[in-house]
Amino acid sequence: MKTDSRIYIAGHRGMVGSAILRRLQRDGYKNLLARSRDELDLRRQADVEEFFDDEQPEYVFLAAAKVGGIHANNTYKADFILDNLQIQTNVITAAYQSGVKKLLFLGSSCIYPKIAPQPITEESLLTGSLEPTNEPYAIAKIAGLKACQFLREQYGVDFISMMPTNLYGPNDNFDLKTSHVLPALIRKFHDAKVQGARHVEVWGTGSPRREFLHVDDCADAGIFLMENYSGGETINVGWGEDISIRKLAELIQEIIGFEGEIIFNRDYPDGTPRKLLDTSRINQLGWRPKISLRDGITSAYSWFKEQRQLA
Ligand code: GDP
């Protein structure tokens, strides 16, 4: 990518897309293309084709998706599969038809089987059943990465994909019904502290383990792959270590300074027991994450408080 290349960031208002946009702006890229959902509904094929015809992007970061935590995924199953299939199929097809030089498709670690050997290598894809609470999203993402792989095989285009672990950071979703665990806990502990509550409720048993990566590290990895990788195999992107939900809750409690108790509500599902990515492939290519969980949560909490003050 050159600083005057035409680069389209699909999903620039989302957590990942906005991090990619910030990073490209910081690095001096001048021809960045972005459209809000009101301007361009990526579920509408004709509109997407028209956008690509008019704007002729050379590079595409496909970070647009319908996303959500365990509760949202499990509740709005039809929306998760259909919206994601439509968004990605429209963008990938239009990118191919209009001659985009390179496209990066972003997926998620939930594409891997529920019970996969840990850490999860890229080879575990399609070796077992998916975690039911996020199956619709995972099926769509698998279709997207396969579409990129097969377009490469059949037509020789340079479309690649990466699968990040659980992400957090600025522009995260802090709505307790639809968010992922890390932003949910930031909000719950903050509110409990402000309200002087005695306890904070954490869903499930606290024993599942998850890996968390700051979204600025994810953006860094995406740009790194755009510049250094051209292959059909998807690439895992993660921190390299995981943590139990109980330990995560304790860390967030400490950072926020909440003095009450943590209560585990076992009426909520745990989801998959463990989801740690094997990141040897991207490490061997020469990339490593930089932002530790403690530093990342501290800065995500500052961002959350600033937003609260602005609201
Ligand atoms: P997952 O990684 O797809 O399972 O999605 P989540 O990030 O939503 O949930 C991860 C784990 O955190 C699950 O075991 C949840 O039950 C647990 N968890 C604990 N408290 C919360 C909470 O307040 N919100 C969410 N979303 N998950 C929570």
Characterization of this structure:
- Helix 1 links the parallel strand 1 and strand 2.
- A six-stranded parallel β-sheet has the order 2-1-3-4-5-10, sandwiched between helices.
- The mean pLDDT is 96.
- The protein has 311 residues and is an alpha/beta fold.
- It has a domain of 208 residues: NAD(P)-binding Rossmann-like Domain (Rossmann fold).
- The protein has ten helices and 13 strands.
- It binds guanosine-5'-diphosphate.
- The site of guanosine-5'-diphosphate (GDP) has 21 residues, from helix 3, helix 6 and strand 7.
How would you summarize this macromolecular structure in one to three sentences?
The chain contains ten helices and 13 strands. It is an alpha/beta fold and 311 residues long. The mean pLDDT is 96.
Q: Give the radius of gyration.
A: 19 Å
The number of strands is 13
Mean of residue pLDDT values: 96
What is the terminal-to-terminal distance? Answer: 37 Å
The side-by-side strand order for the widest beta sheet comes to 2-1-3-4-5-10
The set of bound ligands, ions and cofactors reads:
guanosine-5'-diphosphate
The shape, in one word, is: globular
CATH architecture assignment of the domain at 7-169 and 212-239 and 275-291: 3-Layer(aba) Sandwich
The class by helix and strand makeup works out as alpha/beta
> Residue share in helices?
40-55%
Low-confidence stretches: none
Continuous helix count: 10
Assess the beta-strand content as a share of residues: 15-25%
Q: Briefly, what CATH class of the domain at 7-169 and 212-239 and 275-291? A: Alpha Beta
CATH superfamily of the domain at 7-169 and 212-239 and 275-291: NAD(P)-binding Rossmann-like Domain
Quote the CATH topology of the domain at 7-169 and 212-239 and 275-291: Rossmann fold
